[in-house]
Amino acid sequence: MKPEITITAMKPEHLPQVMAIEKKSFPVPWSEITYYREITENPYANYIVAMVGEEVVGYAGRWLILDESHITNIAVSPGWRRQGVARKLMEHMLRASLMDGANRMTLEVRRSNAGAQKLYEEFNFSPAGYRRGYYTDNNEDALIMWQNDIAAYLGRKEQADGKDTGN
To answer: Apex CA 130: angle with CA 128 and CA 38, to 5°?
Structure first.
């Protein structure tokens, strides 16, 4: 039986575990003070954690800019990858964005990160261009991706889920 993954708002007490995942996930990790400021001072930021019991197994963040949501980061603990954590975080961010008045969402992803791009495409994100030399560790380009109709995507998903369960 799979353990239950719950999504909750990121709080300062989560930061030590978030930082452990951050350092294992990114060549140029954000600092703990950056996360602290994002969750305590930035009125446009919304950060969440995926929990199994008391363990942070993943996290994600987004900024709400007018009627658009911008994913700032998403990461899953190495031992929890490929177990649906990132999908649960993405779905939560899409639903929360829609509730906050955003019907579009964007993100940047490393041009070489085919796995992440595939995940985003499952949520109807499409390539829209590149940011040249975006990543400072190796000057890699970022692929800009957009999800342009969150409401339609979630509506189709709910319809499909209803058919799968016989509802």
So the answer is: 90
In three-state secondary structure terms, 146 is strand
64-113 pLDDT per residue, tens: 999 999 999 999 999 999 999 999 999 999 999 999 999 999 999 999 99
Report the alpha-carbon distance of residue 61 to residue 118 in Å, rounded.
19
Say whether 108 is catalytic: yes
Task: Catalytic residue, from 120, 140, 153, 158: name it.
Answer: 120
130 is catalytic: no
Per domain, the residue ranges of the chain are 6-165
**pLDDT, tens digit, for every residue of 136-160?**
889 999 999 999 999 999 998 888 8
The arrangement of secondary structure in 6-165, i.e. its CATH architecture, is: 3-Layer(aba) Sandwich (3.40)
Global pTM value: 0.91
Distance of CA 108 to the CA centre of its chain: 11
pLDDT, residue 167, reads: 45
Closest CA to 145 of 131, 130, 127: 127
